[in-house]
Specification:
Layout lengths: L1 E4 L3 E4 L6 E11 L3 E15 L6 E15 L5 H8 L4
Antiparallel strand pairs: 1-2, 3-4, 4-5
């Protein structure tokens, strides 16, 4: 990476920046329903060469799922069986 430091000029150096990912999920499964909760978090830090400046980036989401299972009638089952997957 190259940085321009005021009064010093352009400085080139290698550096390592930290990052972390976190994922958590829990749920319940039965013949008729499913419900679940999942959480995803990503955090990254970028520092300048002299470590006087840094930027933290974070992003994440939380998701609640509810699924009710049902049987397809014969008409829809035939249509799905024709699909190429």
């Amino acid at each position: 990476m190259a940085y321009e430091i005021e009064g010093v000029g352009i400085s080139r150096d290698w550096q390592l920046n930290s990052g972390a990912d976190f994922r958590f999920a829990i749920g319940y499964n039965s013949d008729k329903t499913y419900w679940g909760f999942s959480l995803v978090q990503d955090q990254t830090t970028m520092k300048s060469i002299n470590e006087s400046l840094f930027a933290n980036f974070g992003v994440g989401n939380a998701r609640f799922n509810y699924v009710k299972r049902f049987r397809l009638n014969e008409k829809w089952q035939r249509k799905l069986n024709k699909l190429p997957f």
